[in-house]
Specification:
Monomer. Its cofactor is Ca(2+). It is an enzyme of class 3 (hydrolase). Belongs to the glycosyl hydrolase 2 family. Keywords: Calcium, Glycosidase, Hydrolase. This protein has 12 helices and 62 strands. It is mainly beta. Strands 48-49-50-51-62-57-56-53-54 form a 9-stranded antiparallel beta sheet. Helix 8 links the parallel strand 30 (about 445) and strand 31. Helix 4 (about 330-340) packs parallel to helix 5 (about 355-365) and helix 8 (about 455-460) runs parallel beside helix 9 (about 485-495). The chain has 5 domains: about 20-190, Galactose-binding domain-like (Jelly Rolls); about 195-290, Immunoglobulin-like, CATH 2.60.40; about 315-320 and about 345-350 and about 370-545, TIM Barrel (Alpha-Beta Barrel); about 550-655, Immunoglobulin-like (Sandwich); about 675-935, Beta-galactosidase, Chain A, domain 5 (Distorted Sandwich). It is elongated, with a radius of gyration of 32 Å.
């Protein structure tokens, strides 16, 4: 991504230099939330009200310590009598303009102000009050400027609008409601005769059309349009005469074989517009553009350049915790990179137009954009809405990344505005309605929100294209990546499936300046993100990355006859797999008692990139060396043509039994073992260790690890997490040098404890189940507050759910203990608690010493302590008994929008169904308490030369 970012930055600088030749810009505020200027400020109520002081702009006044906080749904929380804080801020600044601006048209531009904004220059109104928080507006103030002396700008900003429909559309909403001038304000000077804006339509067949809007034309002029490619080579030009009084000029020409813009191939051109008078340039402006054609083929799909595409999208609020919706270009760039890193190709600007810089970045990096008029669940009036549509579309129309306009969200659609978009958009993009009720398809696209898997199947069998603009609501740890694989397969394989947009990108956590900058997600209202407020990556981030990988590999485990051939499906729309770089690594994992985690790379090489066209299937030949089986793990990394990692897949090459036998054989110290008993206990003993087993239940009651009698608190297991434990018999007996205790239950379950002469405590258990179960396996107790960290060989480093196993890779991982609750402060990832997948061995580092557990059989889940996926009146889903569990099945996770969350989860698809179990389950666990004496085998556990952690 770094190389792409440098190109983008260079192009932006070049663009700004040329832009400044035509429009002289003088910033009155800073250029963004990081680079601000100080103005005078007064607010009528709330904190620091009633007296003049200073404020940094652009900003939200709440984040500068003024006024009060409101969340948009406070009226729901507090009832019908609740009234939002009617805060009004007065801004004042003084400025001078150069004498060279005399005779020029001077405008003042506001890129965004919340909400009603009245502007005065030297005591005179600049124009009518602007209503609407997220839109760029400007006034011609040429006749109000004083040259040779200081000018005064006064701005009155009302947090709530005087227009009820504006408040309904963008203030009474499910997000933080902030106030103030939050985007830059600047002066703009142009010649008296100038180009006010352009509208471009560049089609995939090379046709270029432009409407050039003119101001102040008072005599015959000439206008020239030049088209340049990315290397700044002139590829076409056209000229036309304009006459006095002209307000628009239309120009059209064609080029041959243009490089087309898509999210996979974001080829950009530059159009330079020059206004000449008497053969002298008097004004010049330029626009970036991309040649591409958008089609909605009703009953079929969404087509870009004649190819059907499917949206792998997400909803994005413009957000940063310390500055709210006042952000920087760096934040916009970071967000676009993160969206691309998840292998997504689309973003919905929810629920308002974003910063201009974000759209430029989407043009450059390649993201399909749904640009949305505000209207959260109620609509703008027609009078106000027409003005705001014009401002939004005029600003954004030339971005090739925008392929849809959205006329409001979830009922916030004013149908009278549907035809307004095309008045200012020469390319006549489709308009959609992002709605939450069935039966509201518009322009052949149904965007209904939060359908379950089975209702989605039904919609996809209907007459309309289906593209949910919100689905799998990701509050807390639910939704997002959970169940996504099932949904994505539905859309990918359905003719009318167009993909969709997950809710949402980030937890909208606000650093509250009235609470010592603590981050507030407003309880259950705003922790809806795949990432935390500062872009902390949650588990769903990585699951989405694998699920949406355009190089699709489904091989979970290598077959016994594996020969280096891996089946692959190309889920790109425009890219051949032969454009992808494939690199494999053979690795050796760090050992359990090594001081490090990670792995060592033993060998690396390049795999063949096969010729597989988009949407087709084929095979990858890794070309592995003949001795590949001697290694412990295999990694395969795919990088795209820009050098960005698509995904890294991993496979374990050695079975668990072989992995832990290696450790067991290294325990060279042999002790005599025995068993003693009393009325309630069998006690398995060696020279140093004692393990007490209850006679009534067969459970581990206590552990002593040395001759001094040092105890470890690991006990009360194995408790079967389903059913009751009633013993029918228990006995002790010897087997060679080892001592065993066998406990049988009335329901047929069985426990066998075995103390080996090398100090290893072995547990064999079996149980039978028939029916549907949330989880299956056994549990123990251990005090969570004694634990320092956990280290394991298996999938990680994030916890998983039955319907979100994707995104985790094999490694020796290590997590320091934390109490992260996904969606709430502090956002420390990976989470320490949870279900962890395919664990070969686990080591808990505790205040009492190390506890190491190995598994003989494959595919064991480990549960660590108490946690929940979704937090409501009660945590969900319910947990097994105990707090450290070794499981053969774990539960799926639903979403917060389920009415009865325990019953609704299974409606999210096959992966989200409760475990259907029928049969007998057997497992062997090996326990070692404390540090072993590894004898002469210690060398194999020393630190190897390299330690490479997977990110």
């Amino acid at each position: 991504m770094k190389f792409t970012s440098k190109i983008f930055a260079f192009l932006c600088v070049c663009s700004q230099l040329l832009f400044s030749q035509s429009k002289e810009i003088q910033f009155l505020t800073g250029k963004d939330a990081e680079h601000t200027k100080e103005w005078d400020f007064w607010i009528n109520s709330g904190r620091k009200s009633g007296s003049w002081s200073k404020i940094l702009v652009p900003s939200h006044w709440e984040q500068q310590g003024f006024g009060s906080y409101n969340y948009g749904r406070d009226y729901v929380t507090y009832g019908r009598n609740f009234k939002f804080n009617d805060e009004t801020g007065l801004y004042k600044c003084r400025f001078s303009v150069p004498n060279s601006w005399k005779g020029k048209t001077i405008s003042i531009v506001f890129e965004g102000s919340m909400t009603d904004t009245e502007v005065k220059i030297n005591g005179k109104l600049a124009g009518e009050i602007h209503q609407g928080a997220f839109y760029e507006f400007k006034y011609d103030i040429s006749d109000k400027i004083q040259f040779g002396k200081e000018n005064t700008l006064e701005v009155k900003v009302s947090k709530m609008s005087a227009d009820k429909s504006v408040n309904n559309a963008e203030r009474l909403a499910d997000y933080w409601i902030l106030g103030g001038i939050f985007r830059p304000v600047y002066l703009q000077a142009t010649s008296r005769e100038y180009i006010s804006s352009t509208a471009i339509d560049a089609k995939a067949d090379g046709t270029f059309r432009s409407n050039i809007y003119l101001q102040g034309i008072n005599s015959a002029n000439n206008i020239k349009v030049e088209l340049f490619d990315v290397k700044n080579n002139l590829v076409a030009e056209s000229q036309a005469q304009i006459q006095k009084g002209d307000t628009i000029k239309k120009i059209r020409f064609s080029i041959k074989n243009p490089k087309l813009w898509t999210a996979e191939t974001p080829h950009l051109y530059k159009a330079k517009f020059t206004l000449n008078k008497n053969r002298k340039k008097i004004f010049q402006t330029e626009e970036k553009l991309g040649f591409r054609t958008i089609e909605i083929r009703k009953g079929d799909g969404i087509f870009i350049n004649g190819t059907k595409i499917k949206m792998k999208g997400i909803n994005r609020h413009v957000w940063w915790p310390e500055t709210g919706r006042a952000v920087t270009e760096n934040v916009d760039l970071m967000d676009a990179h993160l969206i691309k890193e998840m292998n997504m190709n689309a973003v919905r600007c929810s629920h308002y137009p974003p910063n201009k810089s974000f759209l430029k970045i989407c043009d450059s990096l390649g993201l399909y954009v749904l640009d949305e008029l505000a209207g959260w669940q109620k609509k703008y009036s027609t009078e106000v809405g027409k003005k705001l549509v014009k401002e939004m579309v005029t600003r954004d129309a030339n971005h090739p990344s925008i392929i849809f306009w959205s006329n409001g969200n979830e009922g916030g659609h004013n149908f009278d505005l549907d035809r307004e978009f095309a008045k200012y958009d020469l390319s006549n993009r489709p308009v959609i309605h992002a709605h939450h009720k069935p039966g509201n398809a518009f322009n052949g696209i149904d965007c209904n929100h939060y359908e379950d898997y089975y209702s989605t199947k039904k919609i996809l069998e209907g007459e309309n294209i289906y593209m949910p603009t919100e689905f799998l609501h990701a509050q807390d740890d639910g939704g997002g990546g959970t169940s996504l694989a099932d949904y994505w397969e539905l859309h990918w394989n359905s003719k009318k499936g167009a993909g969709g947009f997950l809710w949402a990108f980030v937890d909208e956590g606000l650093a509250r300046t009235d609470f010592n900058n603590q981050i507030d997600v407003n309880a259950i209202n705003a922790p809806d993100g795949i990432l935390g407020p500062h872009r902390e990556k949650e588990g769903s981030f990585y699951a989405i990355r694998e699920i949406y990988s355009p190089v699709k590999i489904n091989l979970k485990n290598l077959p016994d006859n594996f020969n280096g051939i891996i089946p692959v499906e190309n889920r790109y729309h425009f890219t051949n797999v032969n454009e992808i770089k494939l690199v494999w690594k053979l690795i050796k994992f760090k050992a359990a008692f090594s001081s490090e985690s990670g792995f060592d790379i033993i060998k690396t090489g390049k795999a063949e990139s096969p010729d597989i066209e988009p949407t087709k299937k084929g095979n990858i030949n890794l070309n592995l060396p003949s001795d590949w089986k001697e290694n412990e793990g295999l990694l395969l990394t795919a990088n795209d043509s820009f050098g960005n990692e698509i995904y890294t897949w991993s496979w374990k090459l050695k079975p668990n039994d072989e992995i832990f036998k290696k450790f067991s054989h290294s325990l060279t110290k042999i002790n005599q073992v025995s068993v003693v008993e009393n009325d309630s206990l069998f006690i398995l003993k060696s020279d140093e260790k004692e393990f007490a087993i209850g006679k009534k239940d067969g459970l581990l009651k206590s552990v002593i690890v040395d001759k001094r009698g040092k105890k470890m608190s690991f006990k009360n297991g194995p408790v079967f997490v389903n059913g009751k434990m009633e013993l029918s018999s228990i006995k002790s007996f010897a087997e060679e040098q080892n001592q065993l205790i066998e406990a049988k239950c009335k329901n047929g379950n069985k426990i066998i404890w075995k103390l080996n002469s090398n100090g290893m405590l072995e547990l064999n258990y079996e149980y039978s189940l028939s029916g549907d179960f949330q989880f299956a396996g056994v549990s123990f107790d251990y005090p969570e507050n004694y634990v320092i960290n956990a280290k394991w060989l298996g999938k990680g480093p994030y916890h998983v759910w039955k319907n979100r196993l994707q995104g985790q890779t094999y490694n020796v991982w290590q997590n320091l203990k934390n109490s992260t609750r996904t969606g709430q402060s502090p956002w420390i990832y990976p989470e320490f608690k949870g279900y962890f997948d395919d664990v070969s061995w686990l080591q808990l580092d505790t205040a009492e010493g190390k506890i190491t557990v190995g598994a003989k059989e494959e595919k064991m889940f480990v549960r660590l302590f108490d946690f929940y996926g979704i937090y409501g009146a009660e945590g969900y889903p319910k947990l097994p008994t105990g707090n450290v569990s070794f499981l053969d099945a774990i539960p799926p996770l639903g979403t917060v929008l389920a009415f009865n969350i325990n019953d609704k989860t299974e409606s999210l698809g096959p992966e989200s169904e409760t475990n259907h179990l029928n049969g007998t389950f057997k497992r062997t666990l090996y326990f070692y308490f404390g540090l072993p004496d590894l004898g002469n085998e210690n060398k194999q556990f020393t630190m190897p030369k390299e330690n490479i952690l997977m990110d």
